[in-house]
Design goal:
The structure is a single chain. The chain has one domain: Up-down Bundle (Outer membrane efflux proteins (OEP)), CATH 1.20.1600. Helix content is 65%, strand content 8%. It is built from ten helices and four strands, in the order ααααββααααββαα. It has a four-stranded antiparallel beta sheet, with no helix packed on it. α2 runs parallel beside α6, α3 packs across α5 and α7 packs across α9. The longest helix has 70 residues.
Length: 452
């Protein structure tokens, strides 16, 4: 809003000044298009540093870590025995003397239930598989956050590059305006060239507003992903690293089967369901209860101090309907998990195909701008500048060439950021990083002050 108020004030001032000086509005607009905020004094951070900060402080990752901790806390208790029981029994106390415990049999009993052989181990194994599922889900969240950090990082990096291009275009506009001023003063160009210069400067001001918005949004997104306040200043430092080539579809599908966290989670879930089936089948293994105790008999008994021992055994064969249903349920759950794995695998392969197509398209577009359009636009602009200085073309052609150069330069960095985003998406759906070459970051040539 402050930028809009300043720009409106500049336009009002320019309208008042135009009555005396046809270049007054151009001068004021020229100052407006250079009023973007310089980089803050905060130190710049690289993509690797941002990724590390996100792994530590991202809220989604912290939630997944807590879920893993919950699953891990269940493991020790999964295979534990049930609580032992203690029993006291007063037996044979006379009704006429209910307080006379010496006439009764006092029994103290300690009991412990023991599950059938193998059941405790299977329960611990089920809890362990739950931990592995939680670990895979945590890794999936980390991969997703990492890809989003990469996209936001390259959006912000592209924004910085476009601001630098904008500053270069302002230099060009200043030079063109000064040339038009000189030519207008000596009567070599009409006032129409002045108006065209004002239109070009207004477009630069609009371009600056758009860049400011994009930069603020990218910075807010990146801050949110690394667990900071969205309004905090953030400066990034990096380059576009382009791989020499992209892996084939078959290679990435093979890697995804081993590395994609979602597939790993479903595999562990299948193993967990298979273990549940084994545990359900163990339902036909009887459980045991052992008890030991002490009994104090009434006074006058031959043996007042006695011990007791008990042994209990469950009879699951008499409840086949229950156990057969449990086995059927566990087997059906295993089949469901396998079907979900097949569906997830097909979905992963589709995601890889889509991501690969988009990455290849982005790479071709980037190569087109880098190798063809960008050099052509720069050469055309230099030729137009030379022609305008020698009065072989008009100011409109100069402005068109300038705008074309600006659009091509901006499109180049947009395509570079787009390719990096597509590559991050491809790494996310594959579940593993893609090797890159240390490609140098393309920069626009500095514009010399030679339009006179």
């Amino acid at each position: 809003m402050k930028v809009l108020r300043v720009f409106a004030l500049i336009l009002i001032t320019a309208n008042l000044a135009m009555a005396d000086d046809p270049f007054a509005e151009s001068n004021i607009l020229l100052s407006a298009v250079t009023q973007h905020q310089p980089p803050s004094p905060t130190s710049s951070v690289t993509l690797a540093e941002l990724q590390e900060m996100a792994m530590r402080s991202n809220p989604e990752i912290r939630i997944a870590v807590r879920r893993l901790s919950v699953a891990q806390s269940r493991v020790p208790g999964a295979g534990a025995l049930d609580d032992p029981t203690f029993m006291y029994r007063d037996w044979g106390t006379p009704l006429k003397k209910p307080w006379d415990l010496n006439q009764a049999q006092n029994m103290f009993m300690y009991s412990q239930s023991l599950p059938g052989p193998g059941k405790r181990g299977l329960r611990s194994e089920i809890a362990g598989k739950e931990v592995e599922v939680a670990k895979a889900e945590l890794e999936a969240v980390r991969r997703d956050v990492s890809a989003r950090v990469s996209r936001a990082f390259y959006d912000l990096l592209r924004n910085h590059d476009e601001l630098r291009i904008h500053d270069q275009q302002v230099i060009i506009a200043r030079q063109a305006l000064e040339t038009a001023r000189v030519k207008y003063t000596v009567g070599r160009v009409p006032q129409q060239d002045v108006l065209k210069a004002q239109v070009a400067l207004t477009r630069l001001a609009e371009h600056l507003n758009s860049l400011a918005e994009d930069g603020d949004l990218a910075s807010a997104t990146l801050n949110s992903l690394i667990g900071r306040d969205p309004s905090e200043p953030l400066e990034v430092l990096g380059q576009y690293s382009l791989p020499a080539s992209l892996p084939s579809l078959a290679e990435m599908e093979k890697v995804a089967l081993d590395k994609r966290p979602e597939l790993t989670a479903f595999s562990r879930a299948i193993e967990q369901s298979e273990t549940r089936t084994k545990l359900a089948q163990k339902g036909y293994t009887p459980d045991y209860t052992i008890s030991a105790g002490y009994m104090l008999t009434p006074a006058g008994s031959t043996y007042r101090n006695n011990y007791m021992a008990e042994f209990g055994l469950s009879l699951p064969w008499l409840n086949r309907r229950k156990h057969d249903a449990e086995i059927s349920e566990a087997q059906a759950l295993t089949l469901e998990q396998r079907a979900e794995y097949d569906n997830q695998r097909a979905l992963v392969f589709l995601q890889i195909q889509e991501a690969l197509v988009k990455a290849r398209t982005a790479y071709r577009n980037l190569s087109l701008y880098r190798d063809t359009l960008k050099p052509q636009a720069e050469a055309t602009f230099k030729a137009t500048v030379t022609a305008y200085k020698n009065d072989r073309t008009d100011f409109l052609n100069l402005l068109d060439s300038q705008n074309m150069t600006l659009e091509v330069e901006s499109s180049y960095f947009k395509n570079a950021a787009e390719f990096e985003s597509r590559l991050a998406d491809l790494e996310r759906v594959v579940g593993a990083p893609i090797s890159r070459d240390d490609g140098a970051r393309e920069t626009s040539p500095e514009v010399s002050d030679d339009i006179e």
